[in-house]
Design a protein that fits this description.
Blueprint lengths: L1 E3 L3 H12 L4 E3 L6 E5 L3 H11 L8 E3 L17 H8 L4 E6 L6 H4 L4 E5 L4 H10 L3 E2 L14 H8 L5 E3 L11 E4 L6 E4 L5 H5 L6 E2 L23 E4 L13 E5 L2 H10 L4 E4 L6 H17 L4 E5 L7 H11 L3
Parallel strand pairs: 1-8, 2-8, 4-6, 5-9, 10-11, 12-15, 13-14, 13-15
Antiparallel strand pairs: 2-3, 3-7, 4-7, 5-6, 9-10
Bound molecules: threonylcarbamoyladenylate and magnesium ion.
Threonylcarbamoyladenylate (TXA) binds next to β5, β6, β9 and β10.
Length: 326
């Protein structure tokens, strides 16, 4: 594996590698992606192999410009153009009818393809220079926490990728919101970096996939996704006092009130405050970073309090739920 910087020379090298069918981990505004030429079946197969990912889990295809989505998908379905104009580049993935040319391996044989135009200068430069759409799942082994720093990719997949572009920390910190526009009415399959409230301004009453009442449609909806190696337990929002940790345990709090209560209780070997000012954007940006750190620190248990269920709190709670012991 070769670590690249974000110099023009290195970005060109990364783009060339993608054109050659190699695997390149690239920074995006959400999390690091494991990028490959979306037209190349061999490159796509290598993505699944590197991630040890079951081939039923389809990939997101990334484009450098909103207009380029037309190459891979039918963007004439209701809402697609409006959403693209408003939220691309950005942390929104749209599931759309696929163009025939997109290999089945990218979509796991589905008639639809997930498309996203990321809002990250270096991601866009790499994709643009490569001249191809770039299929990229999050750059973590299947079922493990998503990477928000190049170091996470080095540690988790370093021996299985060709290049890693170090673009520093991912500013959004949780994966994109996945919205299925091929179903009527549209359905949010995965809450993420774009708050559902903003989508609802374009699609009034847009539905959100409910894990409790619906069977999984996208494998990202499997509850065991995004797990740390240590057991993680959840408590309700502002209910850190309900936690009954055993052994050396660390707790993730949201806001100074909770963090102070946790410290005062004397139950915790470590108390982490995701956002002292109770800012959900800040909490989302810090989430995977802190989970990676705590997971490596050798605690017996990890605990976390849920965030309020709106804005980016929905995405954070979804990741916490998936990471938790049921
Ligand atoms: O922010 C992100 O979305 C990151 C960065 C790298 O762009 N990518 C990412 O990819 O999170 P991945 O592969 O880890 O998650 C993609 C999600 C999965 O839950 C997958 O099942 C769903 O999108 N998905 C992909 N194609 C789909 C399709 N045709 N229909 C339904 N769900 C799909
Ligand atoms: Mg993933």
């Amino acid at each position: 594996m070769i670590l690249l910087t974000t110099s023009a020379h290195d970005l060109e090298r990364a783009a060339e590698a993608i054109r050659e069918g190699l695997l390149v981990a690239i920074p995006t505004e959400t999390v690091y992606g494991l990028g490959a030429d979306a037209w190349s079946k061999v490159a796509l197969a290598r993505v699944f192999e590197a991630k040890r990912r079951p081939s039923f889990d389809p990939l997101i295809v990334h484009v450098a410009e909103p207009d380029a989505a037309d190459e891979v998908a039918d963007v004439s379905v209701p809402y697609a153009a409006t959403l693209a104009a408003r939220f691309w580049p950005g942390p929104l993935t749209m599931v759309l009818p696929k163009r025939e040319r997109v290999p089945d391996l990218a979509t796991s044989g589905l008639p639809t393809v997930a498309v996203r135009c990321p809002a990250h200068t270096f991601a866009r430069q790499i994709i643009r220079r490569s001249g191809v759409p770039v299929a990229a799942p999050s750059a973590n082994p299947f079922g493990y926490l998503s990477p928000t720093r190049a170091e996470h990719v080095v540690a988790q997949l370093g021996d299985r990728v060709d290049f890693i572009v170090d673009g520093g920390r991912c500013p959004v910190g949780v994966e994109s919101t996945v919205l299925d526009l091929s179903s009527d009415p549209p359905l949010v399959l995965r809450p993420g970096g774009l708050p559902v409230e903003l989508i609802a301004e374009v699609i009034p009453g847009v539905r959100v996939f409910d894990r409790a009442t619906t069977s999984p449609r996208a494998p990202g909806q499997l509850p065991s996704h995004y797990a740390p190696a240590r057991p993680l337990y959840l408590v309700e929002s502002a209910r850190v006092s309900d936690a009954r940790p055993s052994g050396r345990a660390a707790v993730l709090c949201f806001g100074t009130t909770s963090a102070r209560a946790a410290l005062d209780s004397g139950r915790w070997a470590r108390v982490v405050d995701l956002s002292p000012g109770e800012d959900m954007v800040e909490a989302a940006a810090a989430l995977f970073d802190i989970l990676h750190e705590l997971d490596a620190a050798g605690f017996d248990e990890l605990w976390a309090e849920r965030l309020p269920d709106d804005g980016l709190g929905l995405a954070v709670n979804d990741r916490l739920y998936k990471a938790s012991v049921k």
